[in-house]
């Protein structure tokens, strides 16, 4: 399902913001957009997302926007550990390629992670980011729950509509079967002769078995009841509903293929249209 959540925190020289949003997807796909200094938070942020979401293409953006006045006045600090790692890597490259020139000071300063903003305490910034992630995910879940409520109402409406079509078909079956038995028996007697009544009865019985859709209607009732139960129970139900849509579609197809009545064929088509509408929406449910 789609969802959206955002949270911000104010600091002395700027604001930290975290945004999480999702679009429909059958599986869980998580992407992050954040500065390099925040990359260490990615594993724990991923855990927070997976604890809240099981389906959807989720994107989380985390960024720090500095005040315009603070951009030039902010104190900077050199990350000595990052410089040492960079120097060790440069020494190893010069050992392998003796002709390579040494790094210039500007190149070192421009390397990601070498310069740190001393006005931002890394621990405080990361703690604030985790708090924002929890707040944004709470808003994100609330937006998905609102959408889920609307999808549930639509599915309940479609289930009721399919049940109504099935109830229209059921009382028609005895008359349809009897009429086709009579017509088939008449044609067989013409073809086989009146003396072969036993063969006529056998052929009529086999035909009756082929066009009997009582079992399909019974399974439609059962699957629709299970859909209603799953919707009422709530929780993570997208994959279960997806399976039930496949089963409903299979029974509706069989109902249409067995039909010997234009009226029942039309009703079966209406049922298939409703099932397809449900299946499209079920793909979006977590």
Number of helical segments?
A: 10
- CATH topology of the largest domain, by name, is Butyryl-CoA Dehydrogenase, subunit A, domain 3
- By oligomeric state, this entry counts as single chain
Number of strands: 6
Compute the average pLDDT: 81
End-to-end separation in angstroms reads 7 Å
**Structural classification:** alpha+beta
CATH architecture designation of the largest domain: Up-down Bundle
Uncertain segments are none
Whole-number radius of gyration? Answer: 33 Å
Structure description:
Helices cover 65% and strands 15% of the residues. The chain is an alpha+beta fold and 286 residues long. The strands form 2 sheets. The protein has a 4-stranded mixed sheet with strand order 1-2-4-3. Strands 5-6 form a two-stranded antiparallel ribbon. Helix 1 links the parallel strand 3 (28-34) and strand 4. The longest helix is centred in the middle third of the chain and has 48 residues, at 122-169. The chain starts with a strand and ends with a helix. The relative contact order is 0.12.
Write a compact overview of the structure shown.
With 286 residues, the protein is an alpha+beta fold. Helices cover 65% and strands 15% of the residues.
Secondary-structure topology with pairs:
Blueprint: E1 3-11, E2 14-23, E3 28-34, H1 42-52, E4 56-66, H2 68-73, E5 76-78, H3 80-96, H4 105-110, E6 115-117, H5 122-169, H6 173-192, H7 197-211, H8 214-233, H9 238-258, H10 262-282
Parallel strand pairs: 3-4
Antiparallel strand pairs: 1-2, 2-4, 5-6
List keywords for this structure.
Butyryl-CoA Dehydrogenase, subunit A, domain 3; four-stranded mixed beta sheet; 10 helices; 286 residues; single chain; alpha+beta; Ribosomal Protein S5, domain 2; two-stranded antiparallel ribbon
């Amino acid at each position: 399902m789609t969802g959206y959540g955002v949270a911000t925190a104010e600091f002395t020289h700027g604001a930290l913001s975290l945004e999480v949003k999702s679009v429909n997807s059958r599986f869980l796909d998580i992407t992050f957009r954040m500065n390099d200094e925040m990359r260490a938070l990615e594993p724990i942020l991923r855990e927070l997302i997976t604890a809240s979401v099981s389906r959807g293409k989720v994107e989380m953006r985390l960024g720090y926007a500095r005040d315009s006045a603070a951009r030039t006045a902010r104190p900077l600090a050199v990350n000595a550990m990052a410089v040492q790692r960079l120097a060790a890597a440069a020494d190893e490259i010069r050992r392998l390629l003796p002709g390579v020139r040494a790094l210039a000071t500007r190149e070192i300063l421009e390397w990601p992670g070498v310069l740190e903003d001393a006005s931002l305490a890394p621990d405080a910034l990361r703690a604030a980011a985790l708090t924002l992630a929890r707040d944004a995910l709470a808003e994100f879940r609330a937006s998905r729950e609102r959408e889920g409520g609307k999808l549930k109402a639509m599915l309940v409406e479609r289930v009721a509509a399919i049940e109504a079509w099935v109830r229209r078909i059921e009382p028609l079956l005895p008359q349809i079967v009897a009429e086709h038995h009579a017509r088939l028996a008449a044609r067989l007697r013409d073809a086989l002769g009146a003396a072969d009544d036993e063969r006529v009865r056998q052929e009529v019985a086999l035909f009756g078995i082929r066009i009997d859709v009582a079992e399909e209607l019974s399974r439609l009732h059962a699957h629709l009841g299970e859909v209603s139960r799953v919707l009422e129970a709530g929780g993570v139900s997208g994959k279960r509903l997806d399976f039930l849509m496949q089963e409903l579609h299979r029974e509706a197809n069989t109902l249409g293929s067995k039909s010997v009545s234009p009226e029942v064929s039309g009703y079966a088509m209406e049922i298939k249209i409703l099932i397809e509408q449900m299946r499209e929406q079920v793909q979006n449910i977590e």
